Structures are given as structure tokens and as C-alpha cells.
């Protein structure tokens, strides 16, 4: 019934574009967040490298932490979104929530979050222990 309404195609196209832009923006915000987090941990990363930790170990540790944060944040967002849909569905607005749509959004956000966080990894691999710890060579 809705698909036959005037302007339906234009409206769904607009909403799809908005979702796409929000996905790109979320990847940028997550990348910026993890870059700041990495900058704040430069001394800790330098200490790990001074103790013999390889770049691979530090990267695996960072990827694990970032993946956990992204998954937990996405789960929190899904819970909040489902609660909002539940309460909005009680009113006059026709709100529909489908499992495939939520799954697509969750997977997209986790992938975008991990890709966005990869920006911070360049800084992790370039940390020199002596400089990070403030030791004069």
C-alpha cells in the first residue's frame, strides 16, 4: 500500500542516502575516537615495545579492544533503537522493525567501526620506544 503512494520512491531513496552518509560519518567518528585513544596510550605502547612486544602483538591487542568496544556500542545502540521502536509503535506512527534490516545495520556498523579504527593502527606501528617513553637517545 505504501509503495503506491506518491513520492514513496523518492522518500526511500533519500532515506537510503541518509543511512549511507551516517555509516561513513560513523566510521570517521570511530576512527577519530580510536586515534585519540591511541595517542593517549603512546607511552604504554612504547613501554610494551621496549619490553620486546612485536608490532603484531600490539596490533592484535588493539584490534581486539577496538572490536569489543565497537560490538558493545553497536549492541547498546540496537537495544536503544528497539526500545524506541517499541514505544513509538504504540502511537499512531507506523513503525516497522525487521530482523534482516537490523542485522544489515549491525554488520555494516561493526565493519565500518573496525575499518575506521584501522586509521589508528598506523600510529601504533610507528611508535618508537625511546621517543614514547621520553628517553633521550
How would you sum up the global shape?
Answer: elongated
What is the H/E string?
HHHHH
Radius of gyration: 21 Å
Q: How much of the polypeptide forms β-strand, as a percent range?
A: under 5%
Major sheet:
none
Distance from first to last alpha carbon: 73 Å
Write a short abstract of this structure:
This protein is an all-alpha fold.
Task: Give the arrangement of secondary structure elements.
Layout: H1 8-40, H2 42-50, H3 55-88, H4 99-125, H5 129-132
Helix pairs in contact: 1-4, 3-4
Which descriptors apply to this entry?
137 residues, mainly alpha, 5 helices, 78% helix, 0% strand, elongated
Walkthrough of the structure:
It contains five helices and no strands. It has 137 residues and is mainly alpha-helical. It has one domain. The mean pLDDT is 84.
Amino acid at each position: 500500500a505504501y509503495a503506491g503512494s506518491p513520492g514513496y520512491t523518492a522518500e526511500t531513496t533519500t532515506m537510503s542516502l541518509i543511512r549511507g552518509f551516517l555509516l561513513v560519518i560513523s566510521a570517521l567518528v570511530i576512527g577519530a575516537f580510536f586515534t585519540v585513544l591511541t595517542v593517549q596510550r603512546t607511552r604504554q605502547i612504547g613501554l610494551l615495545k621496549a619490553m620486546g612486544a612485536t608490532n603484531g602483538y600490539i596490533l592484535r591487542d588493539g584490534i581486539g579492544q577496538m572490536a569489543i568496544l565497537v560490538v558493545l556500542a553497536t549492541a547498546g545502540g540496537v537495544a536503544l533503537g528497539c526500545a524506541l521502536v517499541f514505544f513509538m509503535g504504540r502511537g499512531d506512527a507506523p513503525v516497522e522493525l525487521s530482523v534482516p534490516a537490523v542485522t544489515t545495520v549491525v554488520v555494516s556498523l561493526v565493519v565500518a567501526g573496525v575499518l575506521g579504527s584501522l586509521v589508528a593502527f598506523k600510529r601504533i606501528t610507528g611508535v618508537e620506544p625511546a621517543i614514547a617513553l621520553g628517553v633521550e637517545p
